[in-house]
Design a protein that fits this description.
The chain has 100 residues and is α+β, with helices and mostly antiparallel strands. It has one domain (20-99). Helix content is 41%, strand content 19%. It contains 4 helices and 4 strands; from the N terminus they run ααααββββ. The chain has helices spanning 3-16, 20-30, 36-43, 53-60; strands at residues 71-73, 76-80, 84-88, 94-99. It has a 4-stranded antiparallel β-sheet, with no helix packed on it. α2 packs antiparallel against α4 and α3 (36-43) packs parallel to α4 (53-60). The longest helix is centred in the N-terminal third of the chain and has 14 residues, at 3-16. The radius of gyration is 17 Å and the shape is globular. The model is unreliable at 9-18 (pLDDT under 50).
Length: 100
């Protein structure tokens, strides 16, 4: 096997090692101040009204930076994910979410 192919294989294997539950647990470990109810939701990949932007990222991962549903204004901000758009108030808390 040539070196570029071997390198690509190693990179693929290393990036595939991080699963969603591992990422979620890392976020939770970094935030002992988070409410236990929110932590339980994050662990199973769910969101709720009142969550912060960082809690949503812990539960669902990164939002789409170039999608049309990712916007901000005087009302707050919306972040588009794969199947949902999440709306935050001006304090950065989830107010609602809806299918795209």
């Amino acid at each position: 096997m040539n070196k570029p192919m071997l390198f690509a294989l190693v990179v693929l294997l290393l990036t595939a090692c991080e699963t969603q539950p591992v990422r979620r647990e890392e976020y939770i470990a970094q935030h002992p101040e988070w409410d236990q109810e929110m932590v339980q939701l994050i662990k199973v990949g769910m969101i709720a009204k009142g969550m912060t932007r960082e809690q949503v990222r812990a539960a669902w991962g990164r939002h789409c930076y170039t999608c049309q549903g990712t916007k901000s204004g005087s009302w707050g901000e919306s972040l588009e994910f794969i199947t949902q758009v999440v709306f935050f108030d001006t304090n950065g808390r989830v107010t609602r979410w809806e299918h795209k």
